[in-house]
Amino acid sequence: MKISVIGCGYLGAVHAATLASMGHTVVGIDVDAGKVDRLARGLPPFFEPGLDELLRDGRTTGRLTFSTEFADAADAQVHFLCVGTPQSKTSDGADLSFLVSAAEALLPHLARGAAVVGKSTVPVGTVDMLRGILAGRPDVPLAWNPEFLRQGTAVKDSLVPDRLVYGVEGGKAAAFNPATGAPRAVTAALDAVYEPLLNAGIPRLVCNFATAELIKSAANAFLATKVSFINAVSELCDASGADVTELSEAMGMDPRIGSRYLHAGLGFGGGCLPKDIRSFRSQASALGVGSVDDWMGVVDSINLHQRSRTVDLAAELCGGLAGRSVTVLGASFKPETDDTRDSPALDVAARLAAAGAHVTVTDPKAVNHAWMRYPQLRFEASTERALEGAELVLLLTEWDEYRRLSPSAVGGLVRRRVVLDARNVLDPAAWEAEGWTVRGPGRAGSTVRLAEIPHF
Ligand SMILES: NC(=O)c1ccc[n+]([C@@H]2O[C@H](COP(=O)([O-])OP(=O)(O)OC[C@H]3O[C@@H](n4cnc5c(N)ncnc54)[C@H](O)[C@@H]3O)[C@@H](O)[C@H]2O)c1
Fold it and tell me: Is the pTM value of this prediction over 0.85?
Protein backbone atom coordinates (compact mmCIF):
# COMPACT_ATOMS: atom_id res chain seq x y z
CA MET A 1 0.00 0.00 0.00
CA LYS A 2 1.26 3.53 -0.75
CA ILE A 3 0.99 5.73 2.34
CA SER A 4 1.98 9.29 3.15
CA VAL A 5 2.89 10.58 6.60
CA ILE A 6 2.55 14.36 6.92
CA GLY A 7 4.76 15.78 9.68
CA CYS A 8 7.93 13.82 10.48
CA GLY A 9 8.71 14.71 14.09
CA TYR A 10 8.90 12.38 17.08
CA LEU A 11 5.58 10.80 16.08
CA GLY A 12 5.60 10.97 12.28
CA ALA A 13 9.18 9.82 11.60
CA VAL A 14 8.66 6.73 13.75
CA HIS A 15 5.23 6.05 12.23
CA ALA A 16 6.61 6.35 8.68
CA ALA A 17 9.58 4.10 9.43
CA THR A 18 7.53 1.39 11.16
CA LEU A 19 4.92 1.36 8.34
CA ALA A 20 7.74 0.88 5.82
CA SER A 21 9.11 -1.96 7.96
CA MET A 22 5.68 -3.64 7.67
CA GLY A 23 6.04 -3.69 3.88
CA HIS A 24 4.22 -0.50 2.84
CA THR A 25 5.65 2.12 0.50
CA VAL A 26 5.80 5.29 2.55
CA VAL A 27 6.61 8.91 1.79
CA GLY A 28 7.17 11.24 4.74
CA ILE A 29 6.35 14.91 4.08
CA ASP A 30 7.60 17.73 6.28
CA VAL A 31 8.01 21.50 5.84
CA ASP A 32 11.36 21.39 7.66
CA ALA A 33 13.87 20.93 4.83
CA GLY A 34 16.76 20.16 7.22
CA LYS A 35 14.80 17.37 8.89
CA VAL A 36 13.73 15.92 5.54
CA ASP A 37 17.31 16.02 4.29
CA ARG A 38 18.57 14.01 7.28
CA LEU A 39 15.71 11.52 7.15
CA ALA A 40 16.20 11.03 3.41
CA ARG A 41 19.84 10.14 4.11
CA GLY A 42 18.70 7.56 6.67
CA LEU A 43 19.77 9.70 9.64
CA PRO A 44 17.35 10.29 12.52
CA PRO A 45 16.93 14.02 13.27
CA PHE A 46 16.56 13.16 16.98
CA PHE A 47 17.52 10.33 19.32
CA GLU A 48 15.00 7.49 19.49
CA PRO A 49 16.22 3.94 20.20
CA GLY A 50 15.86 1.68 17.12
CA LEU A 51 14.83 4.44 14.71
CA ASP A 52 18.22 4.62 12.95
CA GLU A 53 18.01 0.95 11.94
CA LEU A 54 14.48 1.31 10.59
CA LEU A 55 15.46 4.39 8.58
CA ARG A 56 18.49 2.60 7.16
CA ASP A 57 16.37 -0.44 6.24
CA GLY A 58 13.69 1.74 4.65
CA ARG A 59 16.33 3.45 2.54
CA THR A 60 17.91 0.15 1.51
CA THR A 61 14.60 -1.42 0.46
CA GLY A 62 13.53 1.82 -1.25
CA ARG A 63 10.18 1.68 0.56
CA LEU A 64 10.78 4.78 2.67
CA THR A 65 11.35 8.23 1.16
CA PHE A 66 11.01 11.78 2.47
CA SER A 67 10.15 15.04 0.77
CA THR A 68 9.11 18.64 1.35
CA GLU A 69 6.77 18.46 -1.66
CA PHE A 70 3.13 17.51 -1.01
CA ALA A 71 2.90 16.51 -4.69
CA ASP A 72 5.07 13.50 -3.80
CA ALA A 73 2.17 12.21 -1.67
CA ALA A 74 -0.29 12.38 -4.57
CA ASP A 75 -0.59 8.66 -5.28
CA ALA A 76 -0.95 7.58 -1.63
CA GLN A 77 -4.14 5.73 -0.66
CA VAL A 78 -3.91 6.75 2.99
CA HIS A 79 -2.49 10.01 4.34
CA PHE A 80 -1.62 10.19 8.05
CA LEU A 81 -1.60 13.67 9.61
CA CYS A 82 1.15 13.70 12.27
CA VAL A 83 1.98 17.42 12.60
CA GLY A 84 2.44 19.16 15.95
CA THR A 85 -0.49 20.46 18.01
CA PRO A 86 1.39 22.51 20.64
CA GLN A 87 -0.20 24.64 23.32
CA SER A 88 -1.49 27.90 21.88
CA LYS A 89 0.66 30.94 22.71
CA THR A 90 -2.42 32.78 23.95
CA SER A 91 -4.44 30.14 25.82
CA ASP A 92 -4.39 26.64 27.36
CA GLY A 93 -5.96 25.23 24.18
CA ALA A 94 -4.16 23.41 21.36
CA ASP A 95 -2.79 25.35 18.38
CA LEU A 96 -4.29 23.63 15.35
CA SER A 97 -2.71 25.92 12.76
CA PHE A 98 -0.14 23.28 11.65
CA LEU A 99 -2.97 20.80 11.07
CA VAL A 100 -4.92 23.35 9.04
CA SER A 101 -1.85 24.22 6.89
CA ALA A 102 -1.08 20.54 6.32
CA ALA A 103 -4.66 19.71 5.28
CA GLU A 104 -4.79 22.73 2.96
CA ALA A 105 -1.45 21.82 1.36
CA LEU A 106 -2.53 18.20 0.90
CA LEU A 107 -5.96 19.00 -0.58
CA PRO A 108 -4.92 19.63 -4.23
CA HIS A 109 -2.92 16.37 -4.28
CA LEU A 110 -5.54 13.97 -2.94
CA ALA A 111 -6.24 11.05 -5.28
CA ARG A 112 -9.86 9.99 -5.74
CA GLY A 113 -11.10 8.05 -2.68
CA ALA A 114 -7.82 8.39 -0.73
CA ALA A 115 -8.35 8.44 3.04
CA VAL A 116 -7.12 11.19 5.37
CA VAL A 117 -6.36 9.87 8.86
CA GLY A 118 -5.33 12.05 11.79
CA LYS A 119 -2.86 10.77 14.39
CA SER A 120 -1.95 14.01 16.17
CA THR A 121 -3.50 14.60 19.62
CA VAL A 122 -6.37 17.02 19.08
CA PRO A 123 -9.38 18.51 20.86
CA VAL A 124 -12.95 17.40 20.21
CA GLY A 125 -14.32 19.03 17.06
CA THR A 126 -11.07 18.89 15.09
CA VAL A 127 -12.46 16.41 12.56
CA ASP A 128 -15.43 18.71 11.92
CA MET A 129 -13.01 21.56 11.32
CA LEU A 130 -10.96 19.45 8.86
CA ARG A 131 -14.14 18.33 7.13
CA GLY A 132 -14.74 21.99 6.37
CA ILE A 133 -11.34 22.19 4.63
CA LEU A 134 -12.08 19.01 2.64
CA ALA A 135 -15.70 20.01 1.97
CA GLY A 136 -15.21 19.94 -1.81
CA ARG A 137 -14.00 16.32 -1.67
CA PRO A 138 -16.88 14.12 -0.47
CA ASP A 139 -15.04 11.12 -1.97
CA VAL A 140 -12.27 11.49 0.66
CA PRO A 141 -13.14 9.70 3.93
CA LEU A 142 -11.75 10.99 7.23
CA ALA A 143 -10.72 8.98 10.28
CA TRP A 144 -8.93 9.67 13.57
CA ASN A 145 -6.39 7.13 14.74
CA PRO A 146 -4.84 8.55 17.96
CA GLU A 147 -1.29 7.52 18.73
CA PHE A 148 -0.13 6.24 22.12
CA LEU A 149 3.60 5.72 21.48
CA ARG A 150 6.02 6.92 24.16
CA GLN A 151 9.30 8.60 23.29
CA GLY A 152 12.17 6.33 24.32
CA THR A 153 10.19 3.19 23.39
CA ALA A 154 8.41 4.62 20.34
CA VAL A 155 9.57 1.98 17.84
CA LYS A 156 8.48 -0.91 20.03
CA ASP A 157 5.22 0.86 20.93
CA SER A 158 4.46 1.30 17.20
CA LEU A 159 5.26 -2.28 16.28
CA VAL A 160 3.53 -3.80 19.31
CA PRO A 161 0.92 -1.25 20.45
CA ASP A 162 -1.46 -2.01 23.32
CA ARG A 163 -4.40 -1.19 21.04
CA LEU A 164 -5.42 0.51 17.81
CA VAL A 165 -8.22 3.06 17.93
CA TYR A 166 -10.15 4.09 14.81
CA GLY A 167 -12.48 7.06 15.07
CA VAL A 168 -14.87 6.97 12.10
CA GLU A 169 -18.04 8.72 10.94
CA GLY A 170 -21.01 7.30 12.88
CA GLY A 171 -18.78 5.18 15.13
CA LYS A 172 -18.75 1.41 15.41
CA ALA A 173 -22.38 0.98 14.28
CA ALA A 174 -21.64 2.59 10.91
CA ALA A 175 -18.19 1.08 10.38
CA PHE A 176 -19.30 -2.40 9.34
CA ASN A 177 -21.80 -3.79 6.85
CA PRO A 178 -24.57 -5.20 9.10
CA ALA A 179 -25.29 -8.04 6.68
CA THR A 180 -21.73 -9.28 6.13
CA GLY A 181 -19.85 -7.72 9.06
CA ALA A 182 -17.22 -6.52 6.55
CA PRO A 183 -15.56 -3.20 7.36
CA ARG A 184 -16.55 -0.23 5.23
CA ALA A 185 -14.22 2.09 3.29
CA VAL A 186 -12.00 3.88 5.80
CA THR A 187 -12.07 1.07 8.38
CA ALA A 188 -11.06 -1.39 5.66
CA ALA A 189 -8.23 0.95 4.58
CA LEU A 190 -6.92 1.16 8.16
CA ASP A 191 -7.22 -2.61 8.56
CA ALA A 192 -5.07 -2.99 5.43
CA VAL A 193 -2.46 -0.56 6.85
CA TYR A 194 -2.30 -2.39 10.18
CA GLU A 195 -2.82 -5.92 8.84
CA PRO A 196 0.38 -7.37 10.42
CA LEU A 197 -0.55 -5.91 13.81
CA LEU A 198 -4.14 -7.14 13.62
CA ASN A 199 -2.91 -10.58 12.57
CA ALA A 200 -0.66 -10.57 15.64
CA GLY A 201 -3.74 -10.07 17.82
CA ILE A 202 -3.43 -6.36 18.66
CA PRO A 203 -6.93 -5.23 19.72
CA ARG A 204 -8.69 -2.72 17.46
CA LEU A 205 -11.43 -0.46 18.83
CA VAL A 206 -13.74 1.43 16.48
CA CYS A 207 -15.54 4.47 17.86
CA ASN A 208 -16.98 7.82 16.84
CA PHE A 209 -14.92 10.95 16.23
CA ALA A 210 -15.48 12.61 19.60
CA THR A 211 -14.40 9.46 21.44
CA ALA A 212 -11.28 9.05 19.31
CA GLU A 213 -10.39 12.73 19.78
CA LEU A 214 -10.79 12.52 23.56
CA ILE A 215 -9.12 9.14 24.25
CA LYS A 216 -5.51 10.28 24.06
CA SER A 217 -6.05 13.40 26.16
CA ALA A 218 -8.04 11.40 28.71
CA ALA A 219 -5.29 8.76 28.91
CA ASN A 220 -2.63 11.44 29.42
CA ALA A 221 -4.82 13.21 31.97
CA PHE A 222 -5.06 9.97 33.96
CA LEU A 223 -1.29 9.38 33.86
CA ALA A 224 -0.66 12.99 34.90
CA THR A 225 -3.13 12.55 37.75
CA LYS A 226 -1.26 9.50 39.01
CA VAL A 227 2.08 11.32 38.93
CA SER A 228 0.71 14.41 40.66
CA PHE A 229 -1.09 12.30 43.24
CA ILE A 230 2.08 10.59 44.40
CA ASN A 231 4.00 13.87 44.25
CA ALA A 232 1.43 15.51 46.52
CA VAL A 233 1.70 12.50 48.86
CA SER A 234 5.49 12.91 48.83
CA GLU A 235 5.00 16.32 50.46
CA LEU A 236 2.88 14.64 53.09
CA CYS A 237 5.72 12.16 53.61
CA ASP A 238 8.19 15.01 54.06
CA ALA A 239 5.87 16.59 56.61
CA SER A 240 5.31 13.35 58.52
CA GLY A 241 8.63 11.49 58.32
CA ALA A 242 7.24 8.76 56.05
CA ASP A 243 9.22 7.45 53.04
CA VAL A 244 7.32 7.89 49.77
CA THR A 245 9.32 5.22 47.90
CA GLU A 246 8.31 2.54 50.41
CA LEU A 247 4.77 3.87 50.48
CA SER A 248 4.35 3.85 46.69
CA GLU A 249 5.95 0.41 46.39
CA ALA A 250 3.37 -0.98 48.80
CA MET A 251 0.51 0.92 47.15
CA GLY A 252 1.53 -0.25 43.67
CA MET A 253 1.34 -3.91 44.69
CA ASP A 254 -2.43 -3.56 44.71
CA PRO A 255 -3.34 -4.54 41.14
CA ARG A 256 -6.20 -2.04 41.18
CA ILE A 257 -3.59 0.73 41.59
CA GLY A 258 -0.45 -0.58 39.84
CA SER A 259 3.09 0.72 40.29
CA ARG A 260 3.63 2.46 36.90
CA TYR A 261 3.52 6.27 37.06
CA LEU A 262 3.37 6.03 40.85
CA HIS A 263 6.91 7.22 41.43
CA ALA A 264 7.40 10.48 43.30
CA GLY A 265 9.88 12.88 41.75
CA LEU A 266 10.32 16.08 39.80
CA GLY A 267 7.14 15.53 37.79
CA PHE A 268 6.31 15.33 34.12
CA GLY A 269 7.22 17.53 31.17
CA GLY A 270 7.86 17.08 27.47
CA GLY A 271 5.96 17.94 24.32
CA CYS A 272 2.79 15.99 25.21
CA LEU A 273 1.58 15.56 28.79
CA PRO A 274 1.63 19.23 29.91
CA LYS A 275 0.00 20.61 26.76
CA ASP A 276 -2.46 17.71 26.57
CA ILE A 277 -3.79 18.21 30.10
CA ARG A 278 -4.14 21.94 29.43
CA SER A 279 -5.99 21.26 26.19
CA PHE A 280 -8.19 18.75 28.05
CA ARG A 281 -8.90 21.47 30.62
CA SER A 282 -9.74 23.99 28.00
CA GLN A 283 -12.07 21.57 26.17
CA ALA A 284 -13.83 20.73 29.45
CA SER A 285 -14.26 24.41 30.21
CA ALA A 286 -15.65 25.13 26.72
CA LEU A 287 -18.09 22.24 27.11
CA GLY A 288 -19.15 23.47 30.57
CA VAL A 289 -17.66 20.51 32.48
CA GLY A 290 -16.13 22.35 35.43
CA SER A 291 -15.12 19.21 37.34
CA VAL A 292 -12.56 18.14 34.69
CA ASP A 293 -11.35 21.72 34.31
CA ASP A 294 -10.79 22.07 38.08
CA TRP A 295 -9.23 18.61 38.38
CA MET A 296 -6.69 19.21 35.65
CA GLY A 297 -5.87 22.63 37.08
CA VAL A 298 -4.87 21.00 40.38
CA VAL A 299 -2.87 18.24 38.63
CA ASP A 300 -0.98 20.85 36.59
CA SER A 301 -0.21 23.07 39.57
CA ILE A 302 0.99 20.15 41.73
CA ASN A 303 3.27 19.14 38.85
CA LEU A 304 4.76 22.62 38.45
CA HIS A 305 5.13 22.91 42.23
CA GLN A 306 7.64 20.00 42.18
CA ARG A 307 10.03 22.27 40.28
CA SER A 308 9.87 25.05 42.92
CA ARG A 309 10.14 22.44 45.68
CA THR A 310 13.34 21.16 44.08
CA VAL A 311 14.83 24.66 43.78
CA ASP A 312 13.91 25.42 47.41
CA LEU A 313 15.48 22.18 48.60
CA ALA A 314 18.64 22.94 46.57
CA ALA A 315 18.86 26.36 48.22
CA GLU A 316 18.42 24.76 51.64
CA LEU A 317 21.12 22.17 50.94
CA CYS A 318 23.56 24.87 49.78
CA GLY A 319 22.68 27.42 52.46
CA GLY A 320 21.71 29.82 49.63
CA LEU A 321 22.37 29.41 45.92
CA ALA A 322 24.30 32.60 45.12
CA GLY A 323 27.80 31.76 43.95
CA ARG A 324 27.42 28.00 44.51
CA SER A 325 28.68 25.55 41.89
CA VAL A 326 25.94 23.07 41.17
CA THR A 327 25.84 20.21 38.67
CA VAL A 328 22.61 19.10 37.06
CA LEU A 329 22.49 15.53 35.78
CA GLY A 330 19.98 15.40 32.95
CA ALA A 331 18.56 17.88 30.45
CA SER A 332 15.98 15.87 28.48
CA PHE A 333 12.43 15.75 29.82
CA LYS A 334 12.83 12.02 30.48
CA PRO A 335 15.48 9.35 29.83
CA GLU A 336 16.03 7.68 26.43
CA THR A 337 15.17 10.80 24.45
CA ASP A 338 16.98 14.00 23.49
CA ASP A 339 13.71 15.95 23.61
CA THR A 340 14.01 19.01 25.84
CA ARG A 341 10.52 20.45 25.26
CA ASP A 342 9.20 21.64 28.65
CA SER A 343 11.96 19.72 30.40
CA PRO A 344 11.56 19.87 34.20
CA ALA A 345 15.35 19.43 34.50
CA LEU A 346 16.14 22.48 32.37
CA ASP A 347 13.44 24.54 34.05
CA VAL A 348 15.00 23.81 37.45
CA ALA A 349 18.52 24.42 36.10
CA ALA A 350 17.45 27.83 34.73
CA ARG A 351 15.84 28.76 38.06
CA LEU A 352 19.00 27.78 39.94
CA ALA A 353 21.02 29.99 37.59
CA ALA A 354 18.54 32.84 38.04
CA ALA A 355 19.08 32.53 41.81
CA GLY A 356 22.82 33.08 41.31
CA ALA A 357 24.18 29.52 41.19
CA HIS A 358 26.89 28.55 38.68
CA VAL A 359 25.08 25.73 36.93
CA THR A 360 26.67 23.03 34.81
CA VAL A 361 24.25 20.71 33.00
CA THR A 362 25.13 17.38 31.48
CA ASP A 363 23.08 14.79 29.61
CA PRO A 364 23.94 11.66 27.58
CA LYS A 365 21.97 12.81 24.51
CA ALA A 366 20.31 16.19 24.92
CA VAL A 367 23.19 18.65 25.40
CA ASN A 368 23.08 19.80 21.77
CA HIS A 369 19.33 20.49 21.88
CA ALA A 370 19.50 22.16 25.27
CA TRP A 371 22.32 24.66 24.90
CA MET A 372 20.63 26.51 22.06
CA ARG A 373 17.58 27.15 24.23
CA TYR A 374 19.38 27.93 27.50
CA PRO A 375 22.43 30.07 26.73
CA GLN A 376 22.63 31.16 30.41
CA LEU A 377 23.62 27.62 31.46
CA ARG A 378 26.97 25.90 31.03
CA PHE A 379 26.73 22.54 29.28
CA GLU A 380 29.24 19.74 29.50
CA ALA A 381 28.97 16.48 27.56
CA SER A 382 31.22 14.50 29.92
CA THR A 383 29.58 13.48 33.21
CA GLU A 384 32.96 13.43 35.00
CA ARG A 385 33.94 16.92 33.87
CA ALA A 386 30.46 18.24 34.74
CA LEU A 387 30.80 16.92 38.29
CA GLU A 388 34.23 18.41 39.00
CA GLY A 389 34.12 20.87 41.91
CA ALA A 390 30.33 20.63 42.45
CA GLU A 391 29.01 21.80 45.80
CA LEU A 392 25.65 20.19 45.07
CA VAL A 393 24.71 17.50 42.57
CA LEU A 394 21.10 17.38 41.36
CA LEU A 395 19.88 14.25 39.60
CA LEU A 396 16.99 15.62 37.53
CA THR A 397 16.54 13.10 34.66
CA GLU A 398 16.81 9.43 35.57
CA TRP A 399 19.09 8.14 32.81
CA ASP A 400 20.45 4.67 33.59
CA GLU A 401 24.00 5.94 33.61
CA TYR A 402 23.13 8.31 36.47
CA ARG A 403 21.35 5.57 38.41
CA ARG A 404 24.53 3.50 38.13
CA LEU A 405 26.98 6.21 39.22
CA SER A 406 29.46 5.08 41.84
CA PRO A 407 29.17 7.22 44.98
CA SER A 408 32.85 6.80 45.74
CA ALA A 409 33.99 7.72 42.21
CA VAL A 410 31.69 10.76 42.09
CA GLY A 411 32.81 11.65 45.61
CA GLY A 412 36.35 12.02 44.27
CA LEU A 413 35.21 14.66 41.76
CA VAL A 414 32.93 16.95 43.75
CA ARG A 415 33.76 19.55 46.41
CA ARG A 416 30.85 18.57 48.73
CA ARG A 417 29.21 15.17 48.89
CA VAL A 418 25.62 16.40 48.72
CA VAL A 419 23.14 15.02 46.19
CA LEU A 420 19.56 16.03 45.57
CA ASP A 421 18.06 12.98 43.92
CA ALA A 422 14.90 14.63 42.58
CA ARG A 423 13.87 11.40 40.81
CA ASN A 424 14.33 9.11 43.84
CA VAL A 425 16.40 6.58 41.90
CA LEU A 426 19.59 6.36 43.96
CA ASP A 427 20.08 4.01 46.90
CA PRO A 428 20.48 6.46 49.81
CA ALA A 429 22.14 3.85 52.04
CA ALA A 430 24.89 3.14 49.47
CA TRP A 431 25.57 6.85 48.97
CA GLU A 432 25.41 7.72 52.66
CA ALA A 433 27.90 4.91 53.35
CA GLU A 434 30.36 6.91 51.18
CA GLY A 435 29.79 10.06 53.22
CA TRP A 436 27.12 11.62 51.03
CA THR A 437 24.09 13.55 52.20
CA VAL A 438 21.18 12.39 50.07
CA ARG A 439 17.84 14.16 49.76
CA GLY A 440 14.87 13.41 47.57
CA PRO A 441 11.18 14.36 47.55
CA GLY A 442 9.25 12.49 50.21
CA ARG A 443 12.29 10.84 51.74
CA ALA A 444 13.16 13.24 54.53
CA GLY A 445 12.78 10.42 57.03
CA SER A 446 15.63 8.38 55.55
CA THR A 447 18.32 11.02 55.22
CA VAL A 448 21.06 12.66 57.21
CA ARG A 449 19.92 15.88 58.91
CA LEU A 450 20.81 19.13 57.21
CA ALA A 451 22.78 20.38 60.21
CA GLU A 452 25.38 17.69 59.49
CA ILE A 453 26.21 19.16 56.07
CA PRO A 454 29.62 20.88 56.22
CA HIS A 455 29.77 24.47 54.97
CA PHE A 456 32.67 26.05 53.12
N1 LIG B 1 5.94 12.81 20.72
C2 LIG B 1 5.18 11.84 21.18
O3 LIG B 1 5.61 10.98 21.95
C4 LIG B 1 3.74 11.74 20.75
C5 LIG B 1 3.00 10.58 21.06
C6 LIG B 1 1.67 10.51 20.69
C7 LIG B 1 1.07 11.59 20.05
N8 LIG B 1 1.80 12.71 19.78
C9 LIG B 1 1.14 13.81 19.10
O10 LIG B 1 1.65 13.82 17.78
C11 LIG B 1 1.69 15.16 17.28
C12 LIG B 1 3.09 15.46 16.81
O13 LIG B 1 3.96 15.42 17.92
P14 LIG B 1 5.53 15.35 17.75
O15 LIG B 1 6.09 15.12 19.10
O16 LIG B 1 5.89 14.44 16.66
O17 LIG B 1 5.84 16.85 17.28
P18 LIG B 1 7.13 17.38 16.50
O19 LIG B 1 7.16 18.85 16.74
O20 LIG B 1 8.31 16.55 16.85
O21 LIG B 1 6.79 17.09 14.97
C22 LIG B 1 5.86 17.80 14.23
C23 LIG B 1 6.40 17.89 12.80
O24 LIG B 1 5.39 18.46 11.96
C25 LIG B 1 6.05 19.26 11.00
N26 LIG B 1 5.08 20.19 10.41
C27 LIG B 1 4.56 21.32 10.95
N28 LIG B 1 3.70 21.88 10.08
C29 LIG B 1 3.68 21.09 8.98
C30 LIG B 1 2.97 21.14 7.76
N31 LIG B 1 2.10 22.12 7.49
N32 LIG B 1 3.19 20.17 6.86
C33 LIG B 1 4.07 19.17 7.10
N34 LIG B 1 4.76 19.08 8.26
C35 LIG B 1 4.56 20.01 9.19
C36 LIG B 1 7.16 19.92 11.80
O37 LIG B 1 8.16 20.45 10.95
C38 LIG B 1 7.62 18.78 12.66
O39 LIG B 1 8.66 18.05 12.04
C40 LIG B 1 1.20 16.02 18.42
O41 LIG B 1 -0.19 16.21 18.29
C42 LIG B 1 1.48 15.17 19.64
O43 LIG B 1 0.65 15.51 20.74
C44 LIG B 1 3.12 12.79 20.09
Answer: yes
